[in-house]
């Protein structure tokens, strides 16, 4: 086999990383480089006191097709090791959340909602996203998102520094025209936002059929 540049791939040339001997920060960088592009869960929640919250999570995927289950991985609060992020606090208080799928043109708003602010700050207001009532959960949905998946908390799994949150999807809403009648999506017409390593996003959704 040859590499992308046309060179022959040799075993001896492969660079090795011993994860156990690396710092937490470097392992995080290694994982972020290796697993990309990643989809973005733009997670909306509401606290018991009624304050709305919005934050992006790219350690996110489908956990089961049936029952429809999503998984997000939530790390420690930035700058406060051992403390939970507001998203997790709210999910624990209310037992629900919404995974909103942002379009490529929402990159600025997604970044704005990344801010670690006091729990009483409404991050919809901060990012310019429009909250709308959801159908089956108390957490609001994001009007501008392509698709919103309303979830009931199923289970939390503590895994070192992070908490895996599994949510059962109860109701899904989509922007008009995003999904066709037979549940196909034209990804050139409706561009999804992906996360690359470092501060980079991708909106490049060239399709290769195989
Ligand atoms: C594109 C993007 C993806 C992110 N993915 C994650 C993630 O998967 N897990 C995580 O804990 N934090 C992730 N972050 C950082 C959180 O979004 C940030 O800590 C969050 O906004 C904290 O908000 P909260 O305290 O209101 O929950 C990501 C940030 C960005 C910009």
Distance between the termini: 19 Å
**Residue share in β-strands:** 25-35%
CATH architecture of the domain at 39-175: Roll
Radius of gyration: 19 Å
What's the total helix number? 4
Name of the level-1 CATH class of the domain at 39-175: Mainly Beta
The overall pLDDT, averaged over residues, is: 93
Low-confidence stretches: none
**Helical content (DSSP H or I, runs of 4+):** 10-25%
**Small-molecule components bound:** flavin mononucleotide
Shape: globular
Strand count, sense and barrel status of the largest sheet are: 7 strands, antiparallel
The ordered H/E elements are HEEEEEEEHEHHEEEEEE
Protein name: Flavin reductase
Family: Belongs to the flavoredoxin family.
GO molecular function: FMN binding; oxidoreductase activity, acting on the CH-NH group of donors, NAD or NADP as acceptor
Keywords: Flavoprotein, FMN
Brief summary of the model shown:
This protein has helices at 24-34, 86-94, 107-112, 123-127, and strands at 38-39, 41-46, 52-57, 60-64, 69-74, 76-77, 80-84, 96-101, 131-132, 141-142, 147-159, 162-174, 194-195, 201-202.
């Amino acid at each position: 086999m040859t590499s992308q540049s046309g060179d022959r791939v040799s075993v001896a040339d492969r660079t090795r990383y011993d994860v156990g001997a690396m710092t937490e920060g470097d392992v995080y960088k290694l994982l972020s480089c290796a697993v990309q592009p990643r989809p973005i869960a733009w997670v909306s929640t509401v606290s018991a006191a009624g304050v709305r919250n919005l934050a992006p999570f790219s350690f996110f995927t489908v956990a089961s097709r049936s029952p429809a289950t999503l998984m997000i991985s939530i790390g420690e609060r930035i700058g406060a090791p051992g403390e939970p992020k507001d998203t997790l606090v709210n999910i624990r208080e209310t037992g629900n959340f919404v995974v909103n799928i942002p379009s490529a043109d929402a990159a600025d708003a997604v970044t704005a909602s990344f801010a670690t602010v006091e729990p009483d700050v409404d991050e919809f207001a901060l990012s310019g996203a429009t909250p709308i009532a959801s159908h089956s959960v108390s957490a609001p949905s994001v009007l501008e998102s392509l698709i919103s998946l309303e979830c009931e908390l199923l289970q939390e799994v503590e895994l070192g520094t992070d908490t895996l949150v599994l949510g059962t999807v109860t109701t899904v809403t989509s922007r008009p025209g995003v999904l066709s009648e037979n549940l196909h999506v034209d990804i050139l017409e409706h561009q999804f936002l992906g996360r690359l390593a470092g501060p980079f996003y991708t909106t490049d959704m060239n399709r290769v059929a195989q």
